[in-house]
Fold these 2 entries.
Entry 1:
Amino acid sequence: MANLRMILPAVGAAVVALGLSSVFVVDEREKALVLQFGEVVAVRETAGIAFKVPLIQEVVRYDDRILSLFTPPLEVTPLDDRRLVVDAFARWRIVDVVKFRQAVGTQGIQLAQNRLQNLTVNAIREVMGSVPSTTVLSDARTGLMNRIRDIARTQAAALGVDVIDVRLTRTDLPDQNLSATYARMRAEREREAADEIARGGEAAQRVRATADRTVIELTSEARKQAEIIRGESDAERNAIYAEAFGRDAEFFAFTRSLTSYERALQPGNSSIVMQPDSQFFDYLRSDQVQ
């Protein structure tokens, strides 16, 4: 009886342990497989409590969330032989957990990541090699990424996974080509700047020449008009003098003499040497002044 009392608790504990080991919980973020001697006997894709046979069956869990995959930088050669360095990332998810187990075995997610990376790299090379580099750098890039995704998705179906999206994060020239490209771009911009400066100088020269010609034309026209006005004035003055002379020759001679006196006999040290009976003094003699 004493031995029986000691055995019963042990048996009870073993039964409880076996009962607990037959129960497992599936999280909403995962999928689970129940394996028996390495073979899949049950699939648990919904969250909750599930059961298995203790000691004989085991549970393998896989992440049911969307996972990310980053590719290493790789060089691709588009149709125009202009090499590009491309980085990309993909998002994928396990959709058939049984097929996934059969494809990757016990290595799980890590092996799947490696295979998906190879599939994605090959798809990138295939698509990028079928178009020129200008297409890669244009708005058509979205279409190229969708083609890469479709190729990777088709090939990844054998792994029991779905490639949800593939995105190119960088498409640049290789480092050894950047300096030459920048130098070529700089030379091109400098050439364009020199052309613009030359065209500006030519336009400025034309403007200056037009302005100089306009100045000469305006000056010449002004001088011509001045000469015409001066000639007309002289003619009018001579006509007035002639008319005055015609009316009273003696008075005209008298006014001309007075003008000559005013001009000749200026204040200061003026000296005039001439004969006393010169006609210049006709209107200064006392008998004629009267």
Entry 2:
Amino acid sequence: MPQISIGNHSSTGWSVGQVVDWLLRDGRLSAEPSELVDTLAAKLLAAGAPLWRLRLGFFTINPQLAAWAYVWMRGRSTHVEQYPHGVQQTDAYIGSPAQRMVDSGTPVRYRLDHLAPSDHRLLHELAAEGGTDYALFPLRFSDGSRNVFALATDDPQGFSAHDLASFETLSHALSPVLEVAATRRIAETLLDTYVGHRTGRRVLQGQIQRGAAETIHAALWYSDLRDFTPLTETLPTPQLLAMLNEYFETVAAAVSARGGEILRFVGDAMLIVFPADAGHGSDLACRAAVDAALDAFARLEAINRRRRQGGDPEIRFGVGLTAGEVVYGNVGAPDRLDFTVIGPSVNRAARLESLTKELGVPLLMTAPFAGCLGRPVRSLGMHRLKGLPEPVEVYALEEAAGAGA
């Protein structure tokens, strides 16, 4: 097989067979779509294909995104593009080559050196960067969706009939390979969304047997909205849901930035775990939990100023914080399992949160937790917590916490 240069390619000088063979043997083992795209482009160039740009795009199931795309250009690494829900109603998609290909289910091609002023702006952008020819092929997944395999060249002659036939042959082999990679990416995203990153990773690694558990040291957070029950009786449902989502989003941003993970939403309550680092005990986990709480209180204070101006009820919540050894494991019925944490610290965190309402203090913690902080705290005395045989000394931060209690 003769070597083909990008600037002077022949219509029959390269074979797609070796690329397809690699794809079905080794390419399908790529764990990440970006890795697949990088190597696929390298294989095509090595085979002599006149390739300048390659794009793989697929629709996804994600609460925030409608589609992913992985884009490679010669001399650059693959980058990821994310498209939010509603993108199909925007000018970026309407009338685009991708829409034409998806709607028709057939390959489409554009000579970039013979564009009309009315052609989609993407085509003009590719032409301005030096592209001469652009072709898209549908990748059909088993669910019936049509996804995108797009290639461009900067060869002055554009793509030959042989090039286009070879790319179409490749698209048939690429469809099932990309579907596997896309399905795994979707699974990871959904697990991250619904059970958290650490738990989702355990599920994908096969740690799903009922009763499988490990003992970990962690800081535990339990929080609850104030006055949620009367709000459910008075607020219209859309307004109530918007308020809940604003609260959850604010807390999640503060918690995730500091290594915490939301284990469960219980109505308006949240159970969050900050696993302790093996080398530092619980100190870093406890400090991260307090910093996250103070951050969330501060963010909600700003949000509440806006809500007051709009006549909306303020968002206030309390937090109970504990630290200790918990069992992190897989429990439930044979056909309905859940990862959770079990132990005295979990119960104490929930009881402390309830006590924040009585004491009018937004954040309370146990003595072991307070001892890890290295910052000023004050004792609020001994208090009986439901379910515990003996009173527990309860602590608060010296500084005011903000949007709580």
